[in-house]
Amino acid sequence: MHQLTLLRMLGACTATALVVYTGLSFYGDLVRPSFRPSELFMGQTQPVEGSRSTAGFAARLSVDGDLLANSAAMKAAKVLQGPATDATHRAEENKEAQDAAIAALEVSPIRPALWLTLGMLRAGSSAQVAPVLKMSYLAGTVPLEVALARLQTVTSTAAASDEEIRLLALSDIRSTLAGGSRFEAPLIATYVQATPEGKSLLLDATQAINPKFNAALRRY
User: Which of 136, 153, 185 is the last residue of a domain?
Assistant: First the structure.
């Protein structure tokens, strides 16, 4: 009799857990934002505050990789694209966005654009950038716009002095140069804003890949 009671209690607890999980999954599907990490780099409009708050609440209760990643992207957009705020508030928002990105990547790590997003957030704080940028390269391929943003992040931070990053960044340089003339002006702007190590990386790579473009860079 005692064992039967325990089995009934276990069954009831399991059923309750399944109902809660199903309900949370359904709610997550309803409020999951369509704003993805890659859209941070492709000129997409920032999500409205209401949808950001709703998605953030759902993300705290979820283990859905897409929901967590999209919610993190929304928080990052507020930091990276939003209007300037005071330094203290900005630092708090940056940390919150980093925490959201890390939580999403712990659940679903094969997200190169989100790793880059985390790297860009770290570039605005005192945290190391190179390790997460390496993960962005290793996690998979990205659209050309994301590759350009990643190259801008590499060449404007201390990551440009990391030998492994310099090798990995060659893929971004090749792909953006292959993207045609529309990427030439952004690449020149990237060079102008780069650190000395970043400039060296761009000059060395373009000398081998596209000497004509290399000559154009050297005029700046």
Answer: 136
CATH of the domain at 96: 1.25.40
Q: In terms of Cα–Cα distance, which of 41, 36, 24 is closest to 152?
A: 41
Task: List the single range of 20-24, 75-79, 93-97, 132-136 with lowest mean pLDDT.
Answer: 20-24
Least reliable range by pLDDT among 39-53, 93-107, 137-151, 164-178: 39-53
What percent of the chain has pLDDT above 70? 75
Q: 7 or 132, which is more confident?
A: 132
Tell me which residue of 94, 41, 47, 38 sits closest to 74, measured CA to CA. Answer: 47
User: Are 81 and 147 part of one and the same domain?
Assistant: no
Determine which of 18-22, 60-64, 102-106, 123-127 has the lowest per-residue pLDDT on average.
18-22
Q: What is the pLDDT of residues 123-137, one digit of tens each?
A: 977 778 999 999 999
How far is residue 90's CA from residue 128's CA, in Å, rounded to a whole number?
18
Separation between Cα atoms, residue 96 and residue 142, nearest integer Å: 25
d(CA 31, CA 26): 9
Looking at residue 157, what DSSP letter applies? S
DSSP line for 93-124: HHHHHHHHHHHHHHH----HHHHHHHHHHHHT
CB contact at 8 A, 184 and 210: no
Here the tokens at position 81 are 């694209």
